Amino acid sequence: MSLGPLMIGIAGESLSDEECRWLRHPAVCGVILFTRNFVSRKQLCSLTESIRAVRTPELLVAVDQEGGRVQRFAEPFTVLPAMRDVGLLSASDAEKATVAAEKIGWLMAVELRACGVDMSFAPVVDLDRGMASVIGDRAFHADAETVAALTLSFMRGMRRAGMAATAKHFPSHAGALIDSHNALAVDRRDYSQLYDDLIPYRRLISGGLNAVMVSHVVFPELDERPASLSNWWISEQLRSELRFSGAIVYDDLGMGGVSSAGPMPARMHAALQAGCDMALICNDLSEIPAVIESLDEYSNPAAQLRLMRLRGEHKHDWNSVRRSMQWRDARQCALDITAPPALELEG
């Protein structure tokens, strides 16, 4: 059985019988986990094992574990800094910031891989333009070359731990004031004004980037459709112009930014028609059966191969990782960046 184009959320801390039936369908490629699915490391390991046991080849297990305010799994996972705090290091010491980004990318990935999670949808490569609150401190920096250097290092760290990186949110969410989770988000810049936003993608793709998540932002100067539903953005720009050959991920089908595309099955097929390889249903679990049924006749061997390449590598033992000097060093690096600066008291 191959991997299909649909990644789904689940309701709780273990799989229900109905969710197991969903996961056995060839239209499904995996599960995306959230805070609602996490109680402890032992429970998480049991859950990922049960997901893998559903069928062969094994399904993908994913999460958003970026750091900062987007970190689904709490203790005993390391509390990771917001990426803006990593970027702030570059003002005083660019090399130190680059080293820190690689350590934190490795740390995030190795802890997840030790619990059976294949991938985290990271890093965010949107520029910190101070406009999009939904991005905010999730972005590394305002300067495109700095973002490119830091995200390349972050990706190298992930790769050393055996995890594929997913750059997001292509081509940018940095210039849209409205959060596309809730409503239609619009960025009125023209192509020349988006040049800097695309620099990190050019660098990451040259470095072997495995996946890109496409934003639900509309760029009306270029296409009236959201980028995630735009053949121009996906096929002409990402595939042809930027020569990206990895997996293209459509963000959550339930987000307000794509509600105009119709009911969930219609959104799913519009995403596939635009050139996406995978789409997510994160929270609207009642919609999953209808979307699965609509995909009964779907087949895309090239997309299936791209998704298979997202599977995690290197099996890590949690206790062995935590005893290593590499983990201790990376964890201390993350804690040093996360910790607030000490107050300097006068006289």
Strand content: 5-15%
How many distinct folded domains?
1
How are the strands of the biggest sheet laid out side by side?
6-3-2-1-13-12-9-7
Structural class, by secondary structure, is alpha/beta
Q: Could you state the CATH homologous superfamily? A: Glycoside hydrolase, family 3, N-terminal domain
CATH class, please?
Alpha Beta
Cα distance spanning the termini: 71 Å
**CATH architecture grouping:** Alpha-Beta Barrel
Q: Fill in the CATH topology.
A: TIM Barrel
Q: Which residue ranges are poorly predicted, with pLDDT under 50 across at least 5 consecutive positions?
A: 342-347
List the secondary-structure elements in sequence, H or E: EHEHEEEHHEHEEHEEEHEHEHHHH
Treating each run of at least 4 consecutive H or I residues as one helix, how many helices? Answer: 12
Extended strand count: 13
Average pLDDT metric: 92
- Give a short account of the largest sheet: 8 strands, parallel
Report Rg: 19 Å
Q: What fraction, in percent, of the residue positions are helical? A: 25-40%
| Form type | globular
